[in-house]
UniProtKB/TrEMBL annotation:
Bilayer topology annotation: Multi-pass membrane protein
Name of the protein in its database record: ER transporter 6TM N-terminal domain-containing protein
Spans annotated as Disordered: 1-42, 276-295, 421-443
Residue ranges annotated for the DUF2421 domain, each copy included: 796-1026
Location relative to the cell: Membrane
Organism: Glonium stellatum
InterPro entries: ArAE_2_N (IPR018823), BRE4-related_DUF2421 (IPR018820), Memb_transporter_dom (IPR049453)
Transmembrane segments: 52-76, 88-106, 113-134, 154-172, 179-196, 216-234, 513-531, 632-649, 661-677, 683-702, 709-726, 732-751, 771-792
Predominant localisation class: membrane
GO cellular component: membrane
One Pfam family of this chain: BRE4
Domain Integral membrane bound transporter residues, every copy: 652-792
Length: 1059
């Protein structure tokens, strides 16, 4: 969407703390107070500009969005146009806004195609409705009776047609969210035609009206299409390229943030948290509140940006691949780039989890509470060990991160996502590109950069032995000088303390070793992923793809997939304007698959013969009528009829027309959303937006003193400003859309009256109002429509934003179960060697990879929407008890952690598919084969976790309590199981093996999954409760509270104390 375009025009992926630090280091120390004040004053406008998130691209898109209504009202000033559209002139401007010309081209063309089809169908059905209504008038009116304007039978027929169409079209809208705009357009057409239908006495009148209405709609669409295609054209490929550029920039920012955090571990306590003073307590002292360290917060912030971009790219990529364009990279190249980006993102995401892992270490050892003296001494010792280890790896870690950053820069330059930096001129006026000064250094963009990156990556891999040797020395293990060159034959000595250390100390040391290997493995994996991307970029240059542009046409297969996907639920982010996002965070549309939607019928077996199949077909209708989509359509139809009934009664029909209540019906069509509920906050925001629109209409009219040319210019300016909300705050899209439509409606009507005269403007039964009366009346009409939509969202039972959020959270848990089951099968297939040839699309490994990537992207989309909504909960006015935001935040974070650690398990298991170790000897390959054989006999993953997540999903979705005595699966304890099978398999002798490091990643990740699952189960229990079948005995002999009741099923520790 265009909202994505502006958000990626000038991506700033660097953490704010890093940018501030770099900026502060560059400031001079000798500035005087005057220059400092000048700098401070000049920075305020720029600071405000940055807060608004505006850049040139965003402003241009805002200006583009305001052009269609301006053109529509401008051409209406021509006599021929005014004669053609008459009293429907302002409707052309409204429809041109709803055409949403700022959508990327592929998405716009698809949406516009369905807009036109829905309008044409609406016109055809409107003619049928008018004809049937006139037939009702004809059969209920005596031939000799004088013609009258109102006929009850005609009104009833129009009302029935209106209810049926609104019900049906909104049921379709709920079933297929991608049809949001076409169904809204259809609803607007039907509302106008059905409320004017009772006024016609001849079919010729109805045909003329339907024709003018159809022409008005199609003209608005034509203006919107022309602006979209020819004024600042924005293709879906452009959107994707900007997202890829922002993605790569965010990855560079993540590398620098990780570098700062890793370097901070050299001197700080990684298990502690800083504290900041907050409000004063009763004694006047400020209480301490824990806060995250700035380096850790910077990592978390940039990783949230990356996951958001990953989800957006997943949603926009299909449109970019289907688009006909003139460019350089084809659809297959875009798909490969997305795959390579994902290959870099997953290990970087895993590297960011070391912050969480250190916190878990502190929790395991009770270091996050008030420790005793012995525990505090151990903590200081461990912190000191980590400080020494991180100091020892400072140089190799910093070097490889810088090289990887250069690799990402090389990709940006080679694929022409950014322009190469300008060469600085030397003092003598010539170029400063001095070959001698440059020497043998290879820079990003040079031809030999890939070989340079590969060399640095291998040097880092070989250099990891320094940190491992230091760790061994600190633990009392002395390694031979050639230990890492010949681990199978080289000797090593363990001190007596090591041989006699208790199991708890052994586990603690093993965890420390695993975490060190965890960091080195992921850094090396990132460097290899960057290298793959660099080689891909260089390959495109070698093929000549980037030397010139060519016509890119999608193949027949993609066109067929596009047609098939039109009637399928597609993934869309919460800021996708094509699905009418609002201020709810639960409107992220995710296709969850048939397993989540289909249910077995416990009352009917599958049909076995033709008669049963016919009966099964008949049952489709009641199944549809009781579906959630049908319920939503019924709500909207009832809300619409609550207003439309005024137009169908004899005593109020004139009032309906005079006060233009049809716009209240249109507000119902726009504001009621099938993917989310309502809240008092959203209702209030829409009213505020409409009030602001009325004020803007006054400004547009009175600033140029009502002069037509000036009014058109100011309308364009204020509509430009109004589109800031849909573009930069997509959660408030409906608020911004209603505001823009309302202000255009008010100003457009006044310009229409000025052009065609008061008599012609009043010919449809609507009296003329000057703008100072029209604007408040329009405000009252729109607010009334919003109020009716608000009421029918809560009646007969509420569909609140909170219930929609709960449903979405249940879907996120279901996707987690799905993702875990895929990872489970992936790991088993890789250990057994059953993946097959990954080059073949039909191989098991390729199918698992496709499913894994698809579900992961869906989960990122869903979690991003959940996090966005959670941030807005604090602004809502609670009705009843307070919303349990803390529990929901805990569940969202646990789901995010589980998914991230699952992806790490799947990523690390890839090591088991290639037993060949570069530079290794036969003993290494032998150990690798033994290790794989033992891993086959040990269950690395468990189906119990899939069952647990599915159960939690069902409980959250339905609101039913959990079954009693539900416990999480036990930790895997892979190390203990492997050592029980082969004591030497995880000994120090093999710590340099690549499979050992991959095992360390899997061991840490699986343990963290269990830990998060325990927190998740507790949080869900707090939300939905747990069935309690315990038996209580109430004692009447003892009045003390402690003995007044006893539970039959009592914990053993409590029984032993009483005994």
């Amino acid at each position: 969407m265009a909202s994505r375009v502006n958000s990626n025009q000038s991506p700033d992926p660097m953490p704010s703390s890093a940018s501030k630090a770099s900026g502060s280091s560059e400031e001079g120390q000798g500035q005087n107070a005057k220059s400092a004040d000048v700098a401070k004053s000049t920075s305020k406008p720029r600071e405000l500009w940055n807060k608004l998130g505006l850049d040139l691209g965003t402003v241009l898109i805002m200006m583009k969005a305001a052009i269609p209504p301006t053109i529509a009202l401008s051409i209406y000033q021509a006599n021929s146009v005014a004669d053609t559209y008459s009293t429907l002139g302002y409707l052309v401007a409204i429809i041109s806004i709803l055409g949403f010309c700022i959508m990327p081209r592929a998405k716009f063309i698809q949406t516009m195609l369905f807009n036109v089809i829905s309008t044409c169908i609406g016109a055809a059905v409107a003619l049928l409705m008018i004809w049937s209504a006139l037939q009702a008038r004809k059969h209920t009116t005596a031939a000799s009776a004088p013609p009258v304007r109102y006929n009850s039978s005609q009104s009833v027929v129009c009302a029935i047609w209106l209810f049926f169409q609104i019900y049906l079209v909104n049921s379709i809208r709920a079933k297929f969210p991608q049809f949001a705009f076409p169904t809204i357009i259809y609803a607007i057409f039907v509302n106008v035609a059905a409320t004017y239908g009772p006024q016609f006495t001849e079919m010729s009148q109805g045909i003329a009206f339907a024709k003018r209405l159809l022409e008005a709609f199609l003209t608005g669409f034509g203006i919107s299409t022309g602006v979209s295609l020819f004024i600042i054209p924005m293709t879906s490929r452009t959107v994707v390229f900007k997202e890829i550029t922002g993605y790569l920039g965010a990855l560079r920012g993540a590398l620098q943030a990780h570098k700062a955090y890793i370097q901070s571990l050299e001197t700080t306590d990684m298990f502690g948290r800083a504290y900041e003073s907050t409000e004063k307590d009763t004694k006047g002292k400020k209480s301490a509140k824990p806060k995250g360290r700035p380096e850790a917060e910077a990592v978390k912030k940039i990783m949230a940006v990356i996951t958001e971009l990953h989800g957006k790219l997943h949603g926009d990529l299909p449109f970019a691949k289907r688009e006909i364009a003139f460019g350089k990279l084809g659809p297959d190249d875009l798909a490969e780039i997305a795959k390579l980006l994902r290959g870099i993102m997953i290990p970087i995401l895993g590297l960011s989890s070391i912050i969480d892992i250190f916190g878990r270490f502190a929790e395991i050892n009770n270091w996050n509470t008030e420790p005793d003296s012995e525990s505090e001494e151990l903590r200081k010792k461990v912190v000191h060990e980590w400080n020494e280890i991180m100091t020892a790896v400072h140089e190799p870690f910093s070097k490889i991160i810088e090289v990887m950053d250069q690799g990402l820069e090389h990709i940006l330059l080679t694929l022409q996502f950014v322009k190469p930096p300008k060469k600085k001129a030397s003092s003598s006026g010539g170029q400063s590109d001095d070959v001698e000064a440059k020497g043998d250094a290879v820079r990003p963009g040079d031809k030999g950069f890939a070989d340079y990156l590969e060399k640095q990556s291998e040097e880092f891999y070989q250099g990891k032995e320094m940190a491992l040797r230091l760790w061994c020395e600190r633990k009392g293990i002395k390694l031979a000088p050639d230990f890492f060159q010949h681990p199978a034959t080289a000797s090593y000595d363990e001190s007596i303390e090591v041989k006699q250390e208790p199991p708890r100390a052994h586990q603690r040391n093993q965890r420390q070793l695993y975490l060190l290997l965890f960091m080195e493995f992921l850094l090396y994996s990132i460097s290899r992923a960057v290298l793959d991307f660099v080689r891909f970029a260089d390959k495109q240059v070698a093929k000549g793809k980037l030397s010139k542009s060519r016509l890119i046409v999608p193949g027949n297969r993609r066109l067929k997939k596009w047609i098939a996907s039109t009637f399928k639920v597609e993934d869309a982010t919460h800021d996708d304007s094509a699905t009418i996002a609002d201020i709810d965070g639960s409107n992220t549309i995710i296709a969850l698959g048939s397993a989540y939607q289909s249910r077995k019928d416990p009352e009917h077996l599958p049909p076995q013969n033709a008669w049963q199949r016919v009966g099964d077909f008949i049952r489709v209708l009641p199944r549809f009528l009781r579906s959630p989509e049908s319920a939503f359509g019924f709500r909207v139809a009832c809300a619409t009829m609550s207003i439309a009934i005024v137009a169908y009664l004899r005593d109020t029909a004139k009032f309906f027309v005079e006060q233009r209540l049809v716009w209240a019906m249109i507000m119902v069509a726009i504001s009621m959303n099938p993917t989310a509920g309502q809240s008092a906050f959203s209702f209030l925001l829409r009213i505020v937006g409409t009030t602001i629109a009325m004020i803007l209409a006054f400004l547009v009219w009175y600033i140029p003193d009502g002069k037509t040319a000036g009014v058109l210019v100011f309308l364009w300016v204020f509509v430009t400003i109004g589109f800031y909300v849909p573009l930069k705050q997509p959660r408030f899209l409906i608020v911004g859309l209603i505001s823009v439509v309302t202000s255009t409606l008010i100003v457009g009507y006044e310009l229409e009256v000025r052009k065609i005269g008061k008599a012609a403007a009043s010919s449809n039964g609507q009296p003329f109002y000057p703008i100072y009366l029209l604007a408040p009346y329009r405000l009252a009409t729109v607010v009334g429509g919003l109020a009716v939509a608000f009421i029918w969202t809560f009646f007969p039972f509420p569909i609140s934003e909170h219930s929609a959020l709960r449903q979405t959270l249940g879907a996120a848990l279901y996707l987690s179960a799905n993702f875990y089951s895929i990872v489970h099968e992936t790991v088993r297939a890789r250990i057994r060697g059953d993946e097959g040839d990954m080059e073949l699309k039909t191989s098991p490994g390729r199918k698992l990879e496709k499913a894994r990537n698809k579900v992961y992207a869906k989960q990122m989309l869903l979690l991003d929407g959940l996090r966005t909504y959670s941030a807005f909960v604090k602004w809502e006015v609670p009705i009843g008890g307070r919303f349990p935001k803390e529990q929901y935040d805990t569940i969202i974070q646990c789901v995010l952690n589980i998914v991230n650690y699952m992806s790490l398990v799947g990523y690390a298991s890839h090591t088991f598919t290639d037993p060949v170790v570069s530079g290794g000897d036969e003993s290494q390959t032998e150990w690798f084969n033994d290790f794989r054989r033992l891993m086959t006999s040990v269950n690395i993953t468990s189906h119990e976790i899939t069952s647990m997540l599915s159960l939690l999903s069902a409980s959250i979705t339905s609101g039913q309590p959990l079954p009693p005595y539900l416990t999480t699966p036990q930790p895997y304890q892979l190390s203990r199981k492997l050592e029980a099978l082969d004591h030497d398999i995880l000994s120090v002798r093999h710590i340099a093996e690549p499979g050992y490091a991959a095992f360390a990643v899997m061991q840490i990740s699986t343990r963290c999954i269990i830990g998060d699952l325990e927190k998740l189960l507790l949080a869900v229990k707090n939300l939905v409760g747990e069935l309690d079948f315990s038996f209580h005995i109430i004692s009447t002999q003892d009045s003390s509270e402690s003995s007044s009741k006893e539970t039959l099923l009592m914990p053993s520790t409590q029984r032993s104390k009483q005994d």
